[in-house]
Amino acid sequence: MKRDATNYAMVGGFVIAMAGALLLALFQLTGRGKATDTYFADFRNTTGIKSGSVVTFEGHEIGRVGEIGVDQTSGRTIYRLALKVQRGWRIPADSTVRRTSSGLLAPMVVDIKTGESGSALPPGATLAVEDSPSVMDAVADVAGKLSEMTEREIEPLLKRLGDRIDRVGDTLETALPEVLKESNATLARMNNVTRLLEHALRDENQQHLSRALANTQMTTENLLDISQDLKQTRASLDKLLNESNALVDDNGRDVRASVQEIQQALRRINGILHQFENTGRNMSEFSREIRENPSSLIRSSPPMDPSGTQGQ
Fold first, then answer.
1. Side-chain-side CA neighbours of residue 297 (13 Å)
2. What pTM does this model have?
3. Residue 280 and residue 286: Cα distance in Å, rounded?
4. Domain boundaries in the chain?
5. How far apart are CA 123 and CA 93, in angstroms?
6. What is the model's pLDDT at position 310?
7. From CA 73, how far away is CA 257, in angstroms rounded?
8. Low-confidence ranges of the chain (pLDDT < 50)
9. How many Å apart are CA 253 and CA 247, to the nearest integer?
10. Within 13 Å, how many C-alpha atoms sit on residue 263's CB side?
11. How far apart are CA 275 and CA 7, in angstroms?
12. Can you tell me the distance from the alpha carbon of 67 to that of 49, in angstroms, rounded to the nearest whole number?
């Protein structure tokens, strides 16, 4: 009995000691056991920031956020953050403080951006706030704009697209029977053409085609020969013409004289033809007179002498 009580006391003491060590470790981790200097910062938005959030100096952890006070006396809400910073940490006078995070899933921290002033802020001073949007704020803003775009533009676009698809579907449904009918008719014609081709390409027809192709080849060769002969004939004609031109150029004077003689002969022939024409007219007139008065041939008076007396 006494031994059991001793065991219980030992186990209880060990549990209490471990709980105290755990509390001490947590106290050390939160930085509450260290000496700190307090600075203040006034924010309009503390999204992601709460008491106990990390305070960093250019990314290096130097403290925690203490109490968060609320001031609504100026007509708007101001959140006054007490920044518990390691004692003795030098903060330039023109430093600024901002909310930031190292990633989309990382917690929000209060980061002090160092300035270039040679003087330091005393503990209890208020830091200037650089109220720039955080990554989450930017993501939320983009999400809001996307939601607005979806409601104002994408949804009407999808609706119009759906209406057009419905109209196209109705048109296809109306025109599909006729299209199928024409397709069947086209297939039937194609089948008929296929049968004709099969009939045309039978063995005996293939022999005819082969002979026709051979004849065509022979005809082509004959045409080539004829073309060559025509080229040679043309060359001969060109040569003959050139020689004729040279002959005409060499005997031009004799040719012109012959032409003149031919022209004179033609003029003499024209004169003879003119005389024959007059003779013909005289004979025609004589014949007409004989037909009209045959006795004039017997009773005709002798021709007159140049002196004007008739012949005895």
1. 9
2. 0.39
3. 10
4. 1-30, 35-132, 133-199, 201-245
5. 11
6. 47
7. 138
8. 297-300, 306, 308-312
9. 11
10. 6
11. 181
12. 11
Phi/psi of residue 282, each to 5°? -65, -45
Q: What is the pLDDT of residue 312?
A: 42
pLDDT value, residue 65: 93
The closest alpha carbon to 39, from 99, 98, 74, 81, belongs to 81
For the record, the structure tokens of 195 come out as 């049968």
- Look at the block and give the residue holding tokens 């099969």: 198
| Pair of tokens at residue 32 | 């509450």
> Of 102, 126, 98, which Cα lies nearest the Cα of 112?
98
What type of residue is 247?
Answer: L
Give the C-alpha separation, 104 to 45, whole Å: 18
pLDDT at 250 (0 to 100):
66
Q: Which residue has the tokens 């081709």?
A: 197
Predicted pLDDT of residue 37: 92
Q: Where on the phi/psi map is residue 52: left (φ > 0), alpha (ψ -120 to 50), or beta? A: left
Any bridge partners for residue 36, and if so which? 86
In the structure encoding, which two tokens stand for residue 231, read together?
């080229």
Residue 3, token pair as written in the block:
């031994």
- Evaluate the CA torsion angle 126, 127, 132, 136 in order and state its sign: negative
